[in-house]
Amino acid sequence: MRRSVLVVLVFLASVVLLGTTSEEPSPLMGYSVEQARAERNWEGKFRDIPKQDNLRDYMKRLSARPHHVGSPYDKDNAEWILSKFKEWGLNAHIENFDVLFPTPKERVVELLEPTKFVAKLQEPVVPVDPTSGQQSEQLPTYNAYSIDGDVTAPLVYVNYGVPDDYEKLDRLGVLVKGAIVIARYGESWRGIKPKVAAEHGAVGCIIYSDPRDDGYFEGEVFPQGAWRPKDGVQRGSVMDMPTYPGDPLTPGVGATPDAKRLALKDVKTLTKIPVLPISYGDAQPLLAALKGPVAPKEWRGALANTYHLGPGPAKVHLKVQSNWDTKRLYDVIVKIPGSTYPNEWIVRGNHHDAWVNGAQDPVSGAVALMEEARTFGELLKQGWKPKRTIIYCAWDGEEPGLLGSTEWAEAHADELRQHAVAYINTDANGRGYLFALGSHTLEKFANGVARDIEDPEKKITLWKRRQLKNIADAKTPEDRQEIRQRADLRIAALGSGSDYTAFLDHLGVASLNLGFGDEDGGGIYHSIYDDFYWYTHFSDTDFSYGRALAQTSGTAVMRLADADLLPYDFTDFADTIHKYLDELQKLLKDKQDKIREQNKEIEEGVFTATADPKEKSVPPPREDVPPFLAFAPLQNAADALARSAEHYQKALDKVTKNGGLALSGVSLKAVNAQLLQSERKLTSPDGLPGRPWFRHMIYAPGFYTGYGVKTIPGVREAIEQKKWKEAEEQIVRVAGVLQDEAALIESAAEDMEKAQP
Q1: Which of 306, 373, 401, 510 could be a cystine partner for 439, CB 3.0 to 4.6 Å?
Q2: Beta strands 432-438 and 420-425, pairing class
Q3: In this predicted structure, what is the pLDDT of residue 22?
């Protein structure tokens, strides 16, 4: 679903994995020296088995035809995946859910004034690309969960259509009330664009891919290169997933046949205005017809026309009408029982549905998951038995709104809260550098996995290649120094955009999202050209990084499954919490300074134009400077967390100091039972303000970013939205959650100390 946005977030965060090489392997978290030796032996066998040719064959089969939700080939793929799992000796079954999935029956975008132009809304067949011609099976270009609508109105260009863009439009005296807005893809998840437009009174929204961001400005376009051609269109959901993901009709419960469903009129996650995506070929005549102020420099794309804001003289007719049908999902589930701790689960997932053929998104990740499962089947035949239960999941319905994973997680919520140790996710995979995002209790663990796997091209470890990339990309000397000196490089936090969302944000299951990228173009995202031809010509052409992904994710699953002591770490987590607290205090100070400076400009009458110097800017109203916020409760809680993390580390060092794991089976079980709840402690049953489905108090997708994470979201978003009373309330609330987390970690440390001989 979210590869292009995710890659931006990953590499802006610049945050994955490092370590140091040595002849003697580093200790494994949660293992004695003897157990680690045996584990590394099995892991070595695991990493030898995956084959690139298998990955290629799986992709060719899975991406041979369009397989969106409800299509015949989506069901066929699920049944084929199931048959392969069973062929490999694994216990597998399909779980079904019935979900709302609208598909378009009428779409219109036309320019009525000052000239006539009708958008094609069609991606052409490319002769060298054999599957691009499967038009009878392809979903048309559209945005799922747009409401039906038929509107005619003046057009206004709103850049990326994020809240800051509308603030700038206000300052320029450009209003969008009663208008249709045209926004370019980027800088936020697509569903935010119609959401913010509606809040400002727009009656319709058009989203296009500008070639500056996703086209010839970046490189050669398909089929000569990897980037989006002029008639390529990005499909995608515009469901208001920051409110809740999954089936819009069954929030919070699995969409089983007997589930109670909302009436369509009561659904909160549909758009408020009609929205359609278009190509930059269709967008150019619309943008060229606009007059009014010239757009600010940073708003100008790469089309061969002057970028004006409007409104007028361009008038546009936009019509969307859909079939509001219920479709069946096919989640393929594998269960490998644990031999020692069967009631502790490691869950691993990747989706199998696509918008069209989906070779990159999601099949490149799904084939790695399949090859991992085949490899585990081989190891079981050789006598390996995981200590914990492993559950492999090939999700359906991710593209429209994380449907299959969310409904499965909601249906099994009580079991997952009781049993789930971690969720390991992959999605679209490419070529280049390892990225990892996730729970910071798994940061040290993720570093350890990356230290042990070789990059297939550079023949150095994945973490070393990532470390060198991060050093090269560091923006300040201080950042560069930290990358070189900190024991573990920071991993980025997770927002949303893939199947980890229900596990982390709703249920509090520690999660990781893994993949490779940064060395292949992304210009066919959610188009008919995301297919086997494109992938084998412009991405991981020999599937060496697909094999590396199977090795990496499979090693993570195996290492989590076989550790006697759950390998969570709290020192990196505590350090990260202090970093987030510093960011919140800086955010408040920056907002105070900005408003003071703005008020000063208004008072002195020196407010400057921000677009064309000939156009007069409209000063915003004078604002009150944000008040002082008492961060002391949060600071005290962060300090308590750091102390408990240090205590836990000292207790762990004692029980492992002689190379053993000096805890009896009974003691291990008791400590693990507490550790299992450590991520759950970071959730609140009441959820975030205004969106109770999101229960994690440390990580959440931003209400106005969609995919991008907001850390300590209750406090951060209250400051961003100038809700000062709410910010104070959330500071106290998050402090309480962190104090509870610190108490749990302290208790686990004390139990380890008591259990020592």
Answers
A1: 510
A2: unpaired
A3: 40
Residue (of 428, 419, 298, 288) closest to 357 by Cα position: 428
**CA 390: distance to chain centroid?**
23
In sequence order, the β-bridge partners of residue 173 are none
In sequence order, what DSSP letters do the residues of 617-653 get, joined into one string? Answer: P-PPPP-PPPPP---HHHHHHHHHHHHHHHHHHHHHH
pLDDT at 616: 56
Q: Enumerate residue ranges in the chain where pLDDT < 50.
A: 2-23, 609-611
Residue 24, pLDDT score:
57
CA 276 to chain CA mean position, Å: 23
Tokens of 601: 């400009």
CATH number of this structure's domain 3-99+326-562, picked from the four choices 3.40.630.10, 3.90.226.10, 3.30.70.260, 3.40.50.300: 3.40.630.10
Query: How far is 564 from 660, CA to CA, in rounded Å?
Result: 11
Please state the domain extents for the chain. 3-99+326-562, 571-755
Amino acid identity, position 468: L
Looking at domain 571-755, its CATH superfamily turns out to be Transferrin receptor-like, dimerisation domain (1.20.930.40)
Query: Rounded to the nearest 5 degrees, what angle is found at the Cα of 402, between the Cα atoms of 181 and 412?
Result: 150
Instruction: Identify the residue whose tokens are 């969307």.
Output: 320
3-state secondary structure string, 114-175?
Answer: CCCEECCCCCCCCCCCHHHHCCCCCCCCCEECCCCEEEEEEEEECCCCCHHHHHHHHHCCCC
Q: Could you tell me where the DSSP H helices lie in 428-570? A: 443-451, 462-473, 477-485, 501, 532-538, 544-562
Q: Give the number of other Cβ atoms within 10 Å of residue 209's Cβ.
A: 29
Please tell me the pTM assigned to this model. Answer: 0.94
Q: Is 268 exposed, middle or buried (0-12, 13-18, 19+ CB in 10 A)?
A: exposed
Q: Which of 318, 238, 231 is nearest to 283 (CA)?
A: 231
For 301, residues 6+ apart whose C-beta sits below 8 A from its C-beta are 184, 210, 211, 212, 213, 217, 307
Q: What is the pLDDT of residues 211-221, one digit of tens each?
A: 999 999 999 99
CA–CA separation, 351 vs 393, rounded Å? 8
Look-up: residue for tokens 């409110």?
243
| DSSP state letter for 96 | E
